[in-house]
Design brief:
The protein has 581 residues and is of the alpha+beta class. The protein folds into four domains: 224 residues, 3-Layer(aba) Sandwich (Rossmann fold); 106 residues, Elongation Factor Tu (Ef-tu), domain 3 (Beta Barrel), CATH 2.40.30; 97 residues, Rossmann fold (3-Layer(aba) Sandwich); 121 residues, Elongation Factor Tu (Ef-tu), domain 3 (Beta Barrel), CATH 2.40.30.10. Helix content is 30%, strand content 30%. The strands form seven sheets. Strands 3-4-5-2-6-7-9-8 form an eight-stranded mixed sheet, with helices on both faces. Helix 9 crosses helix 12 and helix 10 runs parallel beside helix 11. It is elongated, with a radius of gyration of 32 Å. The N and C termini lie far apart (86 Å).
């Protein structure tokens, strides 16, 4: 058995420094003899054990680990991809994670989203508290060690720094995580280590790399054991067209070996497919004109590009494995495909994303928000998706939408959506897709409400205020308070027996004419055909009168009313029905 390199995923909010931290490690090679070089792989970056130890030289023995792992493989995929790409159903390709948080800005929406992912998959992680160099008064010390740097900072700067760390600890504890600054952690199994870093000055990179490497080795050793001759297992990161080669797939190999000529099994939208590997490619780091180097085999953990017939149909984010003599893997993949129910319910939004990982992440967000999904798939948005949303919209306008993440809508789909007024909502940030949809729903409801106001009498219940009868008739003028619903000009008013007592001509509030009055408003009315003292008197309750057609119209637009208005509408219906019969 061999020990493979742990697979590390970097998560965090936009602009908190995820990419900057990797770039900082990448750029720390000042001279050829100095450590810190990251080897670019397909969909990943690799740093060797030798380079980790050299980068950690600044620690001067403060952190002591006898490293056995060959290195660290940092995957370049977004957090939601790394954690929902499947090893087995629901598994993750990441062994350990770094959650990057801007020490000044603290928690942001994607920070919370990342924590939820980490908690769901029970993935060990450390927190990189980035941008310590922006703390007022912080002075760069020319070291890659945080411990060396903090020991040389003025006391008032240390105090400001500690306040930021305690604030971060408090926020993490709100989400159920016991945490501590890494050098004060008493039990790494129970506490999350916070490592202060600066991607800009490189302070803290020594501790970050050594802790990730050491924790992976200590707590994940069994998980990191691989059979050097074992079947290759990986996750498909991306499906693309490579000039001169044709369709290829980028894969993170996390177990075993891929060999040229191996039969592999993978998932497509239309089911399970097998093919044979014709080429294995990695970036050429030896120099020369060739961009890629072709290998006969490659062992985990690695990022690799595979050339094989039919891979253009592969689903990004799904697993890929070599097929053994008994072909048991094919059966396993058939069961996986059955579990991937792309059609979800009888009604709901239509969802399309670029990969299975992002699809599952978005589906989870929609589920948490209580939004049903009619169908979900991978790939560009088509005319068929829009037509499916249109069918839903005929029953529920607010679910008749197509949501997309990291995809585009085909031209005929855009045209159909425009013609049928079906929204296509696309974003390149997972939670923004949901937020943008919710904003559209709110806007559409407001628009519908205004439209319904123009066409239908709104349900309303009013009471005639005592001492506010100003004219008995022709027209009657008196004061009322709106108890429930909303009152509109032009409606007819009825009493509790269903008798129409008058037609509302005009409303005034503080001597200004208004067209509608909301719940709680006290206003003056002028009513035709109503005689005060005969048709209605002080403290009488009056309701909006509606015809059968108007009541039926409200039944079709019931979503426009809040719960109180719905109850009132039902009362009005009963009053009118009783009066008719």
């Amino acid at each position: 058995m061999l020990i493979r390199s742990p697979i590390v995923c970097v998560l965090g909010h936009v602009d908190h420094g995820k990419t900057s931290i990797l770039d900082s490690i990448r750029g720390s090679r000042v001279a050829a003899k100095e450590a810190g070089g990251i080897t670019q792989m397909i969909g990943a970056s690799y740093i060797t054990k030798k380079d980790i130890e050299a980068l950690a030289a600044d620690l001067e023995g403060k952190l002591s680990f006898n490293l056995k792992i060959p290195g660290l493989l940092f995957i370049d995929t977004p957090g939601h991809e790394a954690f929902t790409n499947m090893r087995d159903r629901g598994g993750s390709i990441a062994d350990i994670a770094i959650l990057v948080v801007d020490i000044a800005q603290g928690f942001q929406p994607q920070t919370v989203e990342s924590l939820k992912i980490l908690k769901q998959y029970k993935t060990p992680f450390v927190v990189a508290a980035n941008k310590i160099d922006l703390i007022t008064g912080w002075k760069e010390q020319g070291t890659r060690s945080f411990l060396n740097s903090i020991s040389k900072q003025p006391p008032h700067v240390v105090q400001r720094f500690e306040e930021k760390i305690y604030s971060l600890m408090g926020k993490l504890s709100e989400y159920g995580f016991d945490c501590e600054r890494f050098d004060r952690v008493s039990d790494f199994r129970k506490q999350v280590a916070i490592i202060p870093v600066s991607a800009k000055t490189k302070e803290g990179l020594s501790e970050l790399l050594m802790l990730i490497a050491g924790l992976s080795q200590k707590f994940l050793e069994n998980k990191l054991e691989i059979n050097e001759n074992g079947a290759g297992k990986g996750s498909i990161i991306e499906v693309k067209e490579e000039k001169g080669l044709g369709p290829v797939i980028d894969v993170i190999l996390y177990d075993g070996v891929f060999k040229k000529g191996d039969e592999v099994v993978f998932l497509t939208v239309n089911g399970v497919k097998t093919t044979k590997i014709r080429g294995i490619f990695v970036p050429n780091i030896k120099g020369g004109k060739e961009k890629y180097e072709q290998l006969d085999l490659i062992a985990a953990a690695a990022g690799v590009r595979l050339l094989a017939p039919g891979v253009e149909e592969a689903i990004a984010g799904s697993p890929i494995e070599t097929v053994g003599a008994q072909k048991d893997e094919i059966k396993k993949f058939e069961n996986l495909y059955k579990e991937m129910l792309f059609t979800k319910s009888d009604t709901g939004v239509v969802v399309k994303t670029d990969s299975l990982g992002s699809l599952e992440a978005l589906m989870r967000l929609l589920k948490d928000a209580g939004i049903p999904v009619k169908s979900a798939g991978i790939g560009k948005i088509t005319k068929k998706d829009v037509l499916e949303a249109q069918v839903v919209a005929s029953e529920n306008r607010y679910l008749g939408a197509v949501l997309g993440f990291n995809v585009y809508a085909m031209e005929d789909a855009q045209q159909e959506a425009q013609n049928k007024k079906i929204p296509i909502i696309i974003s390149d940030i997972i939670y923004k897709t949901l937020e943008n949809y919710q904003e559209w729903v709110a806007s559409a409801k407001e628009e519908s409400k205004k439209s319904a106001w123009a066409k239908l009498p709104w349900p309303a219940e009013v009471i005639i205020l005592p001492g506010c009868c100003f004219r008995m008739c022709k027209p009657a003028i008196f004061g009322v308070k709106v108890l429930r619903g909303s009152l509109k000009s032009g409606v007819r008013l009825m009493n509790k027996n269903g008798d129409v007592v008058g037609e509302l001509r005009e409303m005034q509030h503080e001597k200004k004419k208004i067209e509608k009055a909301e719940r709680g408003s006290e206003i003056a009315l002028s009513c035709d055909s109503l005689v005060l003292g005969k048709d209605a008197k002080e403290n009488d309750i009056l309701y909006t009168y509606m015809t059968k057609d108007e009541l039926d119209a409200w039944s079709k637009n019931i979503n426009e009313l809040n719960s109180e208005e719905r109850e009132l509408l039902e009362e009005i219906r009963k009053i009118i029905t009783k009066a008719v019969w």
